Amino acid sequence: MNTFNFTDNNNNESITVNAETGEVIENGVDMLHAAEPKQSKADNAKAAKTLFFNAREWKPNKDADKTVAVRSFITSPFGGLTESYMIGDWNWNWSTIETGELILEKNTDYEFVFWLNGGENDRNQETCHLKIIFDGDNENCYTYRLNRNFIKYERHYKGWYLYRIPFNTGDACYTKLRLEAMAAYVTYIRADVPEDYAGLPDDPAPVGLPQRHNIIFGEDGFPRNAWWSNKVFPEAGNGNQGGNQNSGFASEVSRGVDVGSIVGMISERIEEVLEEELDADEIAEEIAEEVMGNIDVESIKEEIIRNIKENLN
User: Fold this and answer.
1) Average pLDDT over the chain, rounded to whole?
2) Residue 250 and residue 227: Cα distance in Å, rounded?
3) Neighbours of 268 (CB within 10 A)
4) For 279, phi and psi rounded to 5 degrees?
5) What is the phi/psi pair of residue 83, to 5°?
6) How far, rounded to the nearest angstrom, does the alpha carbon of residue 299 sit from its chain's CA centroid?
7) How far apart are CA 163 and CA 126, in angstroms?
8) Sign of the dihedral defined by the CA atoms of residues 149, 153, 155, 160, in that order
9) CA–CA dist 39, 229 (Å, integer)
10) pLDDT in tens, 178-209
11) Around 90, how many Cα atoms within 13 Å sit in the side-chain half-sphere?
12) Is there a contact between 99 and 58 (Cβ–Cβ < 8 Å)?
């Protein structure tokens, strides 16, 4: 079994991790196959019971006929292979996977832990939810938003986010966990108890990006064909390591394109023109003219030409 070690700075301890699964190993025991989940040293008699994500225990929701979901092995942030579930796409397919009915203890505190990657798009209108449903009551379920920092993550490591979601079962006899995504790819893999990752170095918090890291974009997790890609976005802005030869160019271009205000204006104008009962072509043409009127195209063109000449020389 391949392993690697890192130091827990809080407790001055060396922690061993299985390089193939990303699981923490204690005293030679692989915690993925341990009979009981490992508890934090700070746990006491009233500590929450931990539920772990296991891709094989989740299935696409039969009631969601547009679910896009793929279960497969991928390279984990720790370098080994781990089984994952990727759901969603950039379109409007409502993608859902869920567990079966779990029989948990009544009136008991639980926590659900997992690693997540993606779950956001550059339009800021995606869906990325965890739902906890008791006794089949979909109307009164718990809903947790896993995007846009609505819920604080535990760790941020190599573009992955470690989440710990607490809940209490109340008087429920059955509990079901459901993950939902729309208009964004999101990938889930198993995590151990969060305390076991205390020694991991945190990624710098991304600043100024319209969406977070996503493994479908390749090596650095950001698209190559967007104005905010790692090729052109300033290093200080995206928090990633590595140089950026075109950061000055990106700054100049982005000065002429206020993306946020343009998106807001488009939304407002769509609502207004729909009330005028125009057809689709008229609506699109009118909005496009207003959007282009807010972009200083000539200055952007001049800056592009100047930058190309400089690079050619």
Assistant:
1) 78
2) 7
3) 12
4) -80, 175
5) -85, 135
6) 35
7) 19
8) negative
9) 40
10) 999 999 999 999 999 999 999 999 999 888 88
11) 8
12) yes
Sequence-distant contacts of 213-220: CB under 8 A, at least 24 apart: 213/117, 213/118, 213/159, 214/117, 214/118, 214/120, 214/159, 214/184, 214/185, 215/74, 215/117, 215/118, 215/159, 215/187, 216/86, 216/118, 216/185
Structure confidence by residue, pLDDT tens digits, 219-252: 889 998 887 887 766 553 444 433 333 334 444 4
Query: Which one-letter amino acid corresponds to residue 183?
Result: A
Q: Which residue has the tokens 């509990």?
A: 175
DSSP the chain: --EEEEEETTTTEEEEEETTT--EEETTEEGGG-SSPPPPTT--TTPPEEEE--GGG-EE-TT-TT--EEEEEEE-TTSSEEEEEEE--SSS--EEEE---B---TT-EEEEEEEEEE---TTS--EEEEEEEETT-STT-EEEE-STTSS--SEEETTEEEEEEEEE-TT-S-EEEEEEEESS-EEEE----GGGGTTSPPPPPP-S-SS---GGG-TTSS-SSSTTSTTTS-HHHH--SS--TTHHHHHHHHHT--HHHHHHHHHHHHHHHHHTT--HHHHHHHHHHHHHHTS-HHHHHHHHHHHHHHHH-
Both tokens of residue 46? 């009233």
3-state secondary structure 45-57: CCCCEEEECCHHH
Q: Determine phi and psi for 3, rounding to 5 degrees.
A: -135, 165
Amino acid found at 113: V
Could you tell me which residues are beta bridge partners of residue 178? Answer: 98, 131
Amino acid code (one letter) for 244: N
Pairing of strands 160-168, 155-157: antiparallel
